[in-house]
Design a protein that fits this description.
36% strand; PPPDE_sf; PPPDE_dom; 5 strands; single chain
């Protein structure tokens, strides 16, 4: 059964932590983006649900997750998940 992971990214690249107090008056540690990784494929929202190989997502967006949490497994096969109607 394929493992399911939650990838969390800081799309501010660390700038939220260093500049938020100056601009907003409150500390914000990150601006999160999340994706679900199943069997090496990342599913994420970007103008609709999209999918891309996890390694390609990191390379194409120039960002690595700040955390990659194991959330369980799925009884669906990779082929079943891939057959769902998503963009990409």
């Amino acid at each position: 059964m394929p493992a399911v992971q939650l990838a969390t990214y800081d799309i501010s690249g660390g700038l939220a932590r260093s500049l938020s107090t100056q601009f907003l008056g409150v500390q914000i540690d990150l601006i999160p983006h999340t994706g679900v990784v199943v069997d090496g494929t990342e599913y994420f929202f970007g103008g609709g649900i999209q999918r891309m190989a996890h390694a390609s997502f990191k390379a194409n967006h120039g960002i690595s997750p700040i955390s990659l949490a194991e959330v369980g497994v799925t009884s669906k096969t990779s082929a079943e998940i891939f057959s769902w109607n998503v963009l990409g």
